[in-house]
Amino acid sequence: MIELGTPGAGPAPAAAPGPRRLSPGSRAAAAVLAVAAALLLLAAAAPPDAGPVRRVATVPFDDQYAYSSDGELLYVPTAGALSAYRLADGRRRWSVALGASGVRWDAPAGVLLGRAPGGAATVALDPATGAELWELPGTVAGTRAGTVLLTEGDAGQARVARARTGELLWSGPVARTDTLALAGPGLLAVLAQDGAATVRRLDGPTGEPPVRGRVERRFGAVDPLGSAETLTIGGRLHLVDSDAYGTTVAAYRLDTLERLWRVQDPAQRTLHDCGPVLCLAGGGSLDGLDPATGERRWVNDAWAGVLAATGGLLAVQNDDRVLPHLGQVDAATGRTVADLGDGTFAWGTPDLLVRQDRADPRDTVVVRVAGGRATPAGTLDGTVREACEGAGAYLVCPTVDDVLAVWRVTAGR
After folding, report:
1. What's the rounded Cα separation, in Å, for the pair 298 and 279?
2. Which Pfam families match (predicted)?
3. At CA 75, angle to CA 72 and CA 76, rounded to 5?
4. What angle do CA 55, 61, 65 make, to 5 degrees?
5. Pairing relationship of beta strands 179-184 and 157-162 according to DSSP bridges
6. What whole-number distance in Å separates Cα of residue 164 and Cα of residue 46?
7. Which of 3, 6, 150, 363 has the greatest number of C-beta atoms within 10 Å?
């Protein structure tokens, strides 16, 4: 990596003439000129008023790797390195060697997780300095409540460690077809393809036996078109089995693995925590399920995907993947609160969306969403080619110039 030094000094200035006494009138005139010159210098130094949306930084970017941010620094991987830049001005804070992969910011633990050089292990870094905190074999399969789940597919091993310190809480053999999930603070669920299930308490007394039971799987053998995911909320483990023929969602008690309810759907669906309901998304509609019983409380056919849930409102989109139509839905009732038109929500900031400027397609408009109303916040001076990410008071967007552009969005924040 090439560091740019300070340019060398020019030739020494000629000797200044000796001091000259000024008459009172001359001193007054000089004072006026000095004040005027100072005002001109201040005006030249002050940044132009670019409105509520102002570009503050431009950072090199390789779109093969996923970047991340904590609201103060922007962490950008490249081939073999990870660099941290200040969001406020784009200045590089530090740079370290890292394996060729994206980077994950784990807020609860306050660490960065990425691939170690060589790619076979995970490394945790201090976000302030880039210093290595620990290194363990495996790749990140999930994080929760300050813990990280690491899996080694080839070796058939899994580990759970504290994300900040690397302290090992559990390790053991797993099958390639097992579904593993951090099921809550200090809990690991392992669901085998044949239905055998185990829930281990990682922070309990040494030797505490795990909870064992069985869960119903949609497919008994490995299905190349299928997938299995879990969602844990309020002491319940939700298993979502999906394949080309439909989706099955079942809820189990974590402490006993007793099944509480089961729902089947002929379409491929995904399950999301939407506050007062569980959202079943995809398949041409958005459905709100009662978390206690699995019964449908509401169905909204206008929307099919849920992107975020905040303050009782859901940021939603329709089924059109090319030109998604966005809206807001009341989580409790399923009622459409706002139809926001085209665009994409900023990841991590569902109160901001971006869309192409209809007057000048080379620019992108930022729209602020509040109370079901969309208000233009400003224009980005550049063409955004992918979804933007909200990072505190900033908006980070990949542009067609193959850079990450950072804008400060000040209005209403």
Report:
1. 10
2. PQQ_2
3. 145
4. 130
5. unpaired
6. 42
7. 150
Q: pLDDT 10s per residue in the chain (413 long)?
A: 332 333 333 333 333 333 333 333 433 333 333 333 333 333 333 334 446 889 999 999 888 888 999 999 999 998 888 999 999 999 999 999 988 778 899 999 999 999 988 878 999 999 999 999 999 999 999 999 999 999 997 778 999 999 999 999 999 999 988 899 999 888 999 999 889 999 999 876 666 789 999 998 875 444 666 788 899 988 899 999 888 888 999 999 999 999 999 999 999 899 999 999 999 999 999 999 999 999 999 999 999 999 999 889 999 999 887 777 899 999 999 999 999 988 889 988 888 999 888 788 778 899 998 878 888 889 888 778 778 999 889 999 998 888 999 999 975 44
Look-up: residue for tokens 């030249």?
44
CA atoms within 13 A on the CB side of 180: 27
d(CA 344, CA 69): 19
Structure tokens at 7: 């340019």
> How far is the C-alpha of 246 from the C-alpha of 264, rounded, in Å?
7
Q: Which helix (H) or strand (E) holds 73?
A: strand 73-78
User: Using CA atoms, how far apart are residues 351 and 360, in angstroms rounded to an integer?
Assistant: 24
Residue 151 to residue 146: CA distance in whole angstroms: 17
Measuring CA to CA, how many Å separate 396 from each of 53, 108, 385, 403? 12, 22, 12, 10
